[in-house]
Structures
1.
Amino acid sequence: MNDAEARAILSVYRPGESGIEDPRFEQAKCYAKSHPEVAQWWAEQQELDDLIALKLVSTPVPSDLKMRLTAWEQRSLRRTTWSRAALLLAASIVAAAVMFSSWRGPFQPAVSLADYRDEMVSFVKVTPKLELESSDLSRLQEFLAKANAPAHFNIPEKLKDLGPLGCRVLRFHGHDVSLICFERAEGKLVHLLVIEAAAVAKADGATNPQYAAEGEWTTATWTEGGHTYLVTTKGDRTLLEKYVGSS
Amino acid sequence: MPLYRFGLSLSRKESDAFDLTQHTFLTWATKGHQLRDRTKVKTWLFTTLYRQFLSDKRRAEHFAEAHEDAQFVEPPHVSPSVVNAIDAGIVQQALHDLEDRYRAPVTLFYMQQHSYREIAEILEIPIGTVMSRISRGKAEMRAKLTDLAATDARKVISMPKEQRQ
């Protein structure tokens, strides 16, 4: 096996995928372990795949899609008998749950705080494009409010002391997430992401920052005033505590 | 929404995507009770939408291809500037530009809701063919992302910092 063959195989391999018995995957993974440049390439590919997946999920859908589909559902119900109506209603509830909520059936977990944390960190690892660049926090929050994204939230004082660079809105499982980027003294970024608390299932509801490591990145999450806050930067907990405070 | 996004990726048109989603919804409402394994609801919905897409486009024969060996290709390099430029519009356009045979498996791959085995069930093709098409489709998509990002960059008009929206 050479570098090109290993890369070709690894580009298809998905960590966690079960039921695939292809010995080439194991061979390619072993090859990557002994060839750091291939391992580095693979890590970058996975980050790119995650980024593309996130962008695909954020593809906008028509705002009236749900209304148009449920309008059809109501018309169908009026035309049918009661027993058929009950059947249609039950079927529609499941279909609607699949389409419009985070319900993914018994074979997929609900969207948890860990899922949210993973997805947001994978998003900001590649410096995100900002929709508004400004060092004026009130102007950024005004922009977020106009975009109907979370805007009226408290920003930790130590974070405010950093210079904000700009903001943007992204989507997470149908919910708007407000992102404000701040610049650390050494030119690195600290990202604040705010989503409505109800959007994240199993959120622990902690009002003090809860820290977690995500590879070279550290996150702090807490819930306050109906919002779930996530602050992350590349660095360790001690560094992040300087901007968020200790739990 | 995942169903609609899959429909949009296949059909490339919002109106067709809505029709496909609505048809799937209707089929589920009328025939869903026949599905005994409730853990297969999601796969069933995606399969139904895909079949309707094939039927609408009269492409069934075109897609009913023989088994392809699971040959993988190395994806081309994507520069950091391209990575930074990627947004939802560019991703959607790159998917739209893919060959039909690659578009469905690559879309399902990036939706991250289905295993390879489930993708094979939805598209009704062997799992080796799924992986082969994902490999080639991802390679093709990376090349298109680079082209699209370059085109997009040429469209950007510099604005004073405070005026960017």
2.
Amino acid sequence: MPTPVVMPQMGESIAEGTIVRWIKKVGDQVERDEPLFEISTDKVDAEIPSPAAGVLTDIKVREGETVGVNTVVAEIGQANEVRGAGPAAAGASRSGPAGTAGPAPVKQQADGQSTPAPTPADKAASSIAPEQPSGNGRRRSSPLVRRIAKDHNVDIAQISGSGIGGRVTKHDILGYLEEGRLKPAPTTGAPTTAAPATTAPTTIAPTTIAPTTTTPTTARAPQVVRPAGGDRVEKMSVMRKKIAEHMTLSHRTSAHVYSVFHVNFSTVEKLRQEKKAEYEQRGAKLTYMAFIARALVGALRRHPVINASIDGENVIYRNDINLGIAVALDDGLIVPVVKNADEKNLLGLSRAIADIAERARSKRLNPDEVHGGTFTITNPGQFGAQFGMPIINQPQVAILGVGTIEKRPVIVNDAIGIRTMAYLTLGYDHRLVDGAVADQFMADVKEQLECFDANDC
Amino acid sequence: MPNSYDVVIIGAGTGGYVAAIRCAQLGKKVAVVEKQKALGGTCLIWGCIPTKALLEHAHALKVIRDAKEWGVTLPPATPAIDMHQVQSRKDRIVTGLTKGVEFLFKKNKIDWIKGTARLAGKGKVDIVEGDKQTLEATEIVIATGSSARSVPGIEIDHTRIITSDEAIGLKEVPKTLVILGSGAVGVEFASIYRRFGTEVTIIELLPRLVPIEDEAISAELEKSFKKQGIKSLTGTKVTKAAAGANGVDIEAQTPDGKTQKLTADLLLVAAGRGPVTTGLGVEQAGITMEKGYIKVDDLYRTSVPNVSAIGDVITLGSGVHPQLAHVSSAEGIVVAERIAGQDVAPINYDHVPSCTYCDPEIGSVGLTEGEAREKGYDVRVGSFPFGVLGRAKMAGEGEGFVKIVADKKYDEILGVHMIGPRSTELVAEAVLALRLECTVEELIRTIHAHPTFSEAVGEAAHATHGAAIHL
């Protein structure tokens, strides 16, 4: 009896997901919890583990397709159940270069055949066992594993344990780290050789594709852009498409206004130098970002309108302060959230920010960790920008851009002095936040940073 | 059917009898075939138990000789050993323990088939000597163990040129004894007979005593042996040994290429043990062998379905499979649980403790410093001498040390090596530390009771991180 594999529910508000890549091919042996395929939703990218051990007998939803939550996307069964393959083929697929067996369904699509739509029966069967990625549950491990996890900023809960009672062993975590290193960079992983065929029905397809497949479905395309000779055409990643959508939506939705403040970071810098070693001993890197976050949470508490959302004709003043931290990735960006940031001290913030940033880069965020932000910080300064003009992360009403923090000449008591300075930009939605309110908020943040309380470290 | 069993186990040594008990506990109908007159195999009858009994006699003699130091007044006669009493006490202990295994068999309703087994095709075991019959078995476990082996050119006559089998039963203390091999067996008998008054010489082919131990352990043992009057000829090869009416003439080649002649009452060959499969019919059964050992996978399956093998008789194909009683019994439990359909994990042979009951005792687990460096670890070590401890001073046993080998990168404990009082007991903490993937930091934070010998373990951990407290 094959086990159905379904598109998991990656968060409360997510109804569908796109299969970005099949890690396993039809005929491949899979272990329970071994990564089976990669998905992308509008919130998060994730690797989905296999719900059972066995052989991947059938792939029902191909790479690049978007299907609803709980749709059956594949089946795990026995080797002799491989769809469309006799026993001989099943045997062959176990040996080395099974690559020829894998792309079969892709070819089918290239011929113009459509995917078999999931039947209601499939859906009924699949809803029995919606596969959830392991949450943030505590995992058994060992002192050594915890030490390695700390050094590599790895969440042990993400690792499946092979020891007694599911204990994560040294072998498990080293394997996990090794796997992460070997995983191809997302940009190179996506476009397989079969990709151009599957991307056929788009308006910007290369002209070399057979005319029948270029039948334009142009309704949504504002204009036709044709590549010139020598140009390279690549399908947008799912993340890229989502970013494009979100940014234009935000730009259309909010009345963006900006205020830029010049902030003296000398006190922060002094404290950072003083406390750096101590924090390092406690396993945390003390960054400017932690100080800024700490200053922000106090100011957000005092200026609730900045920590709010617009819902039609209502204003929702958020009770929780959940800080989104924009993290640049090789192929896009993601905004993981530090929940209840106001309940954390400087050390807690340092740890939390480092943790989510690292896991964002290594694609190990839980779906819930990109939800529920109430205010966002972005840091164009890390690449040298004096200041940025960031676009608001909907449905929030403000965003802080941190410019580069560096020593600059400033006037101190009618003399020119050298101080560690940075421009902080607040981008805010003028529909809700007026200039005066925004500037009072920023003045508050500035004061918190310039007179950072040493007792708060 | 009276002769039909779920599991037939061949050999009642530590591997076989433990496997049998575990199988029975898990609801299997079990028979064990054993040709010897008692249960327990090499460990109980010929190895661990009798040698350690003799070592306790040697220790008792040592304490009595120091009676003056302890303030105990003895009659003027020089304390001496009575081999008759030694042997009868030792035999009592051995008999008591083998009877204990018999009792466990009865308790678990395990049948002891007295005789010699021969594999007779799928699911069948012939008993060719003793209670002749054919047993039917769903699963067969071979646990036939090992026996002492010689080296080329030396013929064991069991009178003058002997193995450990004879060495445990000597009726009188030899005046001179040459021991070939400085593994556990060699150095243990060296300790026993030196205490009993024998002139002992150990000849070891490799450059140091107990060559599988950490180098620091070897050096400490050699130092101690020298003090006790045990001669060690390392890097030396025995080229000839001829037994005569009055003793053994031995020729050995020393590292400088010279030939050295020795004579001794007895030559004990302690050069390792080989697998026992004679008459078992392994070849006819189609079982894959490797250098005389039965080849098994990591869950002890042989190449023939439903036939497993454990203990000294097996090879896992790679690495050295330790021939130790506690390894065999651990394998016995794994094989029994696997047969009973439980989910079992392979044994991690890096976490097998090794205990040598020479004087001073050696206990070790994990990688030696040399092995760790060879494997490319960024190694840091720390050691702490027992002599500093109050507890050791009270006991008058200040020899030796505890040494920890750790990986600098993650602070992982890679190996723990100890020589000195109670080392064979103290190593248990280190085994657990390795098993649970402990860091040195954790060992430092573990509170060691005072005054105990175990404080040396905690202090060695401190030393690994920089400095011990009491040094």
3.
Amino acid sequence: MKGLHVIGVSHSYGDNQVLNSASMMIPAGEVVCLLGSSGSGKTTLLRLAAGLERLLHGQILINDEVVADAEIHVPPEHRGIGLMFQDYALFPHLSIIDNVTFGLAGKPKDKARRQGMEMLDQVSMTDYAESHPHMLSGGQQQRVALARALAPEPNLLLLDEPFSGLDTNMRGQIREETLTVLKASGVATVMVTHDPEEAMFMADRIKILGNNGRILQAGRPHEIYYHPQHEFVAKLFGLMNRFESVVEGGYVETPIGKLRAKGLGEGRKVEVLVRPEGVTLESNSGGKSGGGAPLDVISTHLLGHDNIVRAKLTAENVAPEERDLYVRIHHTFEPELTKRITAGVDAEYAFIFALDGSGDVAGDGYTATPQPEAAE
Amino acid sequence: MVELTPSFLMDYESLDKEHQALADIVNQVVEAIDGGEAEKCKTLVPEFVKLATEHFAHEEALLVEVGYPNVKKHQDHHRNLNTKMDHMIEFSNMAGENQLARDSLRKELVFFLMDDVITTDMDFKAFVEEKIKTGDA
């Protein structure tokens, strides 16, 4: 089947294992983002697929052809791959069109130029064909880099933090344009990023690599965000409120509300992670409590389209380490001194993980592993 | 369309047959969507989920039988796929009326089969092969 097929790839630098039996299939036309912290092995995986490193263990196939295993190492230039890095890596002494046609050296010159111009047209850069890289902005150079990577019609496109050199506004625009071009090209694409928001925007599927070089979870962006199967995955998307609790009667109690712990047995110790947008605030005039957890607002931080509110839970029975609360709200928030504010929890943004190291997680999708007799 | 080329074969007949049966349904779903008959997904996708569930049970029983050391990890992986299967059923119910549901269903089915199921099964391929050689499977 067309695309990239990685089977059981492990890799080490000396004693430092950076990939641990990583496997994945990326069909043609799909964009998969490898997301993880520094040192999680995501760039190594990209380099192995590109042939820039020799594979130690496992197998890599591109469009059904083995390009790397313990014995085979097809050199990068024969793998039919396009590469794009954050530093653009355009040749400074070549014009833009010559940069784009660089990978088409085997083709007749007029055909290569026509193909190069078509690629420049796709990224809206035909007006700059005779310019040189230093005459272009960072965003324009990145468009040219994309055109150059796609011009030879590769089987696979590998992107390593391609937008990290761009400022925030330009980044949003260029990644949107890039996604449009990638989808039109039908090429299988692997993009490495450490930016969760970027992965959510670009990917058909996200692969999360943990610090031990293992793939922890793979899924649609929605699934990764709303159904994390690992606390590392849940925490990737920024600040979390954390509480410890014990399962009682199928529920866990937190200082800001009770949550169903589906699938986790009675008496199990758990940690509850609540995204800041999963904390609800309520203002109760006259100092009346609406039943939520009372708190004092410490500060509010306007981020443009939403606010981060830092607060402290005030009930005496809340453990000191669980008093600090982060809340994200999507409207103007200006606490009034005459009103009492309480916090609640939205279960959609709360995740419950067993603390016993078993890796068990509670959630709507959690059901016991089907047994043979149940499958009749 | 999904095609189980040699790199997707487990070289264990019953598992390969089950993978092929799943691939056949994925291709029927793709054909139904492309042919403007997305309503068919309402019956095809539950059938896929049923077959996948049976496949997981069969596979886990096999792994226990041959003494695969990472059987718990593989069981956990199967368990984590339940959410995905729930979502595929939801998409299939909406596929008749909703383009986004059709696109999501097609994408999710292909990734589920090729990435989550078959490619992950490759983790134990060598172990089972060895057991067959020694007559333990």
4.
Amino acid sequence: MILLEVESLRAGYGKIEIVTGVTLEVDNREIVAVVGPNGSGKSTLLKAVFGICRIFSGSVLFKGEDITRMPPHKRSRLGMAYLPQTGNVFESLTVWENLLLAGYDLRKDEMEERLESVASFLPELKELLHRRVKTLSGGERQIVALSMSLLRNPSLVMLDEPTAALAPRLAKQALKRIVELRDELGVAVVLVEQNALSALEVSDKALLMVSGTARFWGKPSELLEDRELAKTYLGL
Amino acid sequence: MLDVLAGALIYSNLLALLAVGLSLALLTCRVSNFAHGDLAMVGVYAAYTFSVVAGVTPYASIPVAFAAGGLVSLLAYLVVFEPLRGRADLVTLMVVSMAIDMVIRYSLHVYADLMQQWLKVYTRLFMFNDFLVEVAGAQVPGVLIASAVSTVALLLSLYMLLYKTKLGAAMRAAIEDPNLAQTLGINVKRVFAVSWFLAGALAATAGVFLPFRVMVNPDTGWSMLLSMFAAVTVGGIGSIGGSVAGAYLIGISETVLSYQLAGLGVSTAYRPLLTFAAIICTLLVSPRGLSGLWSGKGWWIRRRF
């Protein structure tokens, strides 16, 4: 079943168009990797789908509902989560306070239930609960940020370069966890990633973005087999 | 001297309510709101109108002033500052707030003329009649008690809202990082709208106490801006607790020092000099103001939920 449908989306900031016509579909329980060179509009695409940058034209449908003009907080309540690359946790608060904010409109019993479920998926969370975020390492922060986005039990999680601030070993673990998100929690994932090869290895579909447009859309193996595209744009 | 101290306390109470509202505007939309003083005057005229029409004491009109100031402030936010949030720089926002100041101030002038014709009362340079209360054998002006009780009650309620409710948690989150807050499902526009309503309502409530001490007209709020900005700067820009502390420091020192200087033959016209001196000293000695002394950035958002 199609979860997210993006049709001819054009988006950017102010008067500048960064994403210049992208179409993609995300099904339930699949990982879509969005790869491409720096400045190709990958992060802007995620922001546009979540509604936090200007949309010039095109449409975004989530669970069949047109959400193109819907404010971001409503998208979040519909079951869509977005994890920005930076600024994805409240620095001055403790982990527990961050989680309370992430589920601020949940009832107490719902909150406890959700927290239990998130902690069973991310067991490290329990040890971090009373630490201040500013004392956490990059990997620990990602765990907190991911926990916050999972607290509302989303059906789609959009991750903007989740491995960017991580050491290679931790980056590998993070990607493994993204696969578990799909396999264990049944969540669909849109993954923007600089490390194209790692992302393509774990994904079900791939979108190659170049200068704001989709240069390739299809199976990751086909993108890797296309030597010209892989070499020119991904350096593989 | 006792009367001077009473005056200093009343003035500080007003300043505290005004400075907290000014801080909320700064925290939510990063705007140094030059129209904030006018919201106090909206409160004055709303209370004056209601007290004349209903034939009650202006104290009984505080809820009307609270609502009127809140609504005008909310309108300014929804029509002007929300569309500009995150899109205009600090200077543009400041100039825009000056324009709003003019719109509100001259609307109040028009309203004052209409009110004078309609209700046949003086609507410029007027004062409210106060009564005296006997406390421990001393005669104390009613406005001292009323302003102190209102200020404490409103600031405590604001504290409870910010730190004990979900809406307060959402407000603090939206202030710290609006983008992250909305990705977490918080309706940033709505919680900022609540902040702006409260900022205007607190200012308007402060305004009601003003005509008990001084003669007012629609420009009086504008003339108090310097003291409000001084309170916010001395307290620490962006700190609500600091604004309250700054308001009492500025309010008491301004009143008492200008009284002392008057005793030495120096004109009270130099009063703004004291306020400017307080701002300059703060920026030189502790640019983060009083709140910088007790903790680092975001101390007030870190408090327990």
